Amino acid sequence: MAAVTSPETSPQPRVYFQTTAAGSTEEPETPVRKQGRVTVKYDRKELRKRLNLEEWIIGQLTDLYDCEEESIPELEIDVDELLDMPSDNDRGARVKDLLVDCYKPSEDFVTELLDKIRGMQKLSTPQKK
Predict the structure, then answer these.
(1) From CA 54, how far away is CA 62, in angstroms rounded?
(2) Which of 34, 38, 42 is nearest to 13 (CA)?
């Protein structure tokens, strides 16, 4: 998952890169920091919704598989892929296929997931202005 900074934490989004002095083979005592600006703006509201959905999915999967987050079987529920599908039936079938090795009932999870993604937008790289 990608880290998203909210507008409350940083009024001006900044990216810092650590660099070392050219030709130096030893570590400098304090790293030199060059400041860069994030130039591409994303729809923060949509990103927040997506992040909340991903956190909810992880919580549900830990319950379904009855394990810690690190022990969840390797599966990827791609929300954008689900949004590309023509119907909820297709989406539900895809999620059920992904959960084929889950022994707990997953119907409630699938139904709630489909309700949560309804109306969401695909995340695509926004165009630079």
Answers:
(1) 12
(2) 38
Residue 117 one-letter amino acid: I
Domain 44-117 sits in CATH at: 1.10.150
- In angstroms, the CA 122 to CA 104 distance is 30
Does the global pTM surpass 0.70? no
Residue-wise pLDDT for 59-72, tens only, equals 999 998 888 877 77
Domain range summary for the chain, segments of one domain joined by + = 44-117
Q: Write out the E strands in 9-124.
A: 14-19, 32-37
- Dihedral pair phi/psi, residue 14, rounded to 5°: -135, 150
Joined tokens for residue 129: 């202005």
